[in-house]
Automatic annotation (TrEMBL):
GO terms for biological process: transmembrane transport. GO terms for cellular component: plasma membrane. This is Putative spermidine/putrescine transport system permease protein. InterPro entries: MetI-like, MetI-like_sf. Belongs to the binding-protein-dependent transport system permease family. CysTW subfamily. Pfam families: BPD_transp_1. It is found in: Cell membrane. The lineage of its organism: Bacteria, Bacillati, Chloroflexota, Anaerolineae, Anaerolineales.
Length: 305
């Protein structure tokens, strides 16, 4: 007994080391799939093809296509984070307010957990099979007649003849929104559940309306959570690659697609410049994560109180 106490005081607790052995697979995974790729990325961004130090890889800042890819990625991420955030907030509110049936809340929560992780090639294929030129909904629309602006009947109605194109930025926004709003539901639900019923009762007893309660009580309290969740959605869309590549075939210049083309070498073929593009992307993602963590800390204060 005395030896065990001495070992614990000296930091030589055998049970502690046994528990740390179980973490070895996690540390190996982090080392091989996060640390080492990050080191390769950072070092490659400042090297030329011969391995010599250079800053020429960052000349992409003067490349119109590279800057356009950043702007397009930021634009698509902003739009989908706002649309998905707003839609997801109302869905989450419907499930937490107590007005929706319990079975419906369970279905929405389960669906959100699945849809938030449904992306990449399967999601692109699902949208092509649904809204593509020969998709299910497109075929249904071709079988109906609509009135045009001049009152003339349009038969059949083909959305692709009237400006819609799934393989464009609009289609990409639709696809991204599909996995953005379920993520918002999962992220904002704990904050909505943290709203205390006593606040509503006190607000009602003081004579305030529902609109005044949300304006002066609920929204100020939820604002850090809403902003943090929206920032998380932005980062989620900004780093997406497989869905855009499979849906558009690389025809839309996103920064992730441009990085893939540089590293694979099938079109551009300068891996080091691809590392530099990824380095800029890491900076944007780091800012996003920092803002999200700051807002989450602020949210955690009133949830614990």
């Amino acid at each position: 007994m005395k030896n065990k106490q001495l070992n614990r005081k000296s930091g030589k607790d055998p049970s502690r080391w046994k528990s740390l052995i179980g973490l070895l697979p996690f540390f190996f995974f982090i080392a091989f799939f996060l640390v080492m790729p990050s080191i390769t990325l950072f070092s490659g961004a400042f090297q030329d093809m011969d391995g010599q130090f250079t800053l020429a890889n960052f000349s992409f800042l003067q490349n119109t296509f590279a800057l356009k890819s950043y702007l397009t990625s930021i634009w698509v991420s902003l739009i989908t984070s706002v649309i998905g955030g707003a839609f997801g907030f109302f869905v989450a509110y419907a499930t937490t307010s107590g007005r929706a049936p319990r079975w419906m809340s369970t279905i929405l929560t389960t669906f959100s957990g699945l849809a938030a992780n449904f992306g990449g090639v399967p999601l692109a294929f699902a949208f092509i099979a649904t809204l593509g030129r020969t998709g299910f909904i497109t075929a249904l629309l071709k079988g109906i007649c609509l009135n045009g602006p001049d009152g003339a009947a349009i038969c059949p109605f083909n959305p692709y003849d009237h400006g819609f194109n799934l393989y464009s930025v609009v289609g990409l926004i639709l696809a991204y929104t599909y996995f953005q709003f379920p993520l918002m539901v999962l992220t904002i639900t704990p904050a909505l559940e943290g709203l205390k019923k006593e606040w509503v009762e006190a607000s009602t007893n003081l004579g305030s309306s529902s609109a005044q309660y949300w304006r002066y009580v609920a929204l100020p309290v939820l604002l850090p959570s809403l902003l943090g969740a929206t920032i998380l959605l932005f980062g989620n869309a900004f780093g997406a690659y497989a869905t855009a590549q499979a849906l558009t075939g690389g025809s839309i210049y996103l920064v992730t697609i441009m990085i893939g083309q540089q590293i694979r070498g099938d079109v551009l073929g300068n891996p080091n410049e691809g590392y530099a593009l990824a380095f800029g992307m890491v900076i944007i993602m780091s800012i996003t994560i920092f803002l999200y963590v700051m807002l989450q800390r602020k949210t955690a204060r009133w949830i614990k109180s």
